[in-house]
Target: Thioredoxin reductase
Amino acid sequence: MAKSYDVVVIGAGPGGMTAALYASRANLSVAMVDRGIYGGQMNNTAAIENYPGFKSIMGPDLAQQMYDSSVNFGAEYVYGSVESVEDKGEVKLVKTDSDELEAKVVIIATGSEYKKLGIPGEHEYGGKGVSYCAVCDGAFFRHKNVVVVGGGDSAIEEASYLAGIVDHVTVIHRRDQLRAQKVLQDRAFENDKIDFVWNSNVTEVLGDGKKVTAVKVVNNQTNETSELETSGVFIYVGLLPMTEPFANLKITNEDGWIKTNDQMETAVPGIYAIGDVRQKELRQITTAVGDGGIAGQQAFKYVEALSSKGQTEAAR
Model:
């Protein structure tokens, strides 16, 4: 028999933990479900310097502090991989790989994951020079040379951002022209701290065991191989929203991102989405926390409305 809650939060990253905090503090019964350790991508971040209240804090430390707050008012942490969510009107059924949970409200906070190159050294040097977020990690590379891999909007925006911090940026792109918007291209081409390597693929990240020292590059037209010295590798070849379990709900756009309004409501009443899984521009810890606070409060209002409706119907 499925265990019942007022709210089930799917995902225990910063957004999910904040939603659980707000909902449980409003005296709702809450379960946070996650297939991994709470904190999400924060656990892969060596130091966070852009979260208010901390000049610098280790990612796992911030994750632990957020988790301690999230369960302070009785929210439960449930380990499991969510396979589907069924909308049964006033009740939602959340199926995991080992259990079933019922809830009046479901808050989706599953986030997104960066597309990986899948090359040697990429995983080994994650957090040691390999990054997928210039806003998060750019400051660690002041006065150094870095590489950006990609040619779309994100890659070129981040290259321009990095150029304001580091000594030099080399953009490596597999084609002979960029895919980014023209205004972004023009900005990058005019910046004398940015240069480009065309028709090339990064095939390996090299390092000394502690940090990145270079990348191996192959020209896909001539097969010529070279090594480019660098202190950092910023990879922007796309993001993948983690929304496969919710395909049946028809709440995503054509690229898989969940569409919401500013109250975090999806097209299905009682189902909310927050953080990096949403269709939005800025994906940061701060924005996920803001989304989570809104969704947690909206969950309370939704449950209260259901309760009032039930009382009214019972009195008839």
Observations:
- The chain has a mean pLDDT of 94.
- The two ends are 31 Å apart (CA to CA).
- Helices lie at 14-25, 59-70, 134-137, 153-163, 182-189, 285-315.
- The first helix runs from residue 14 to 25.
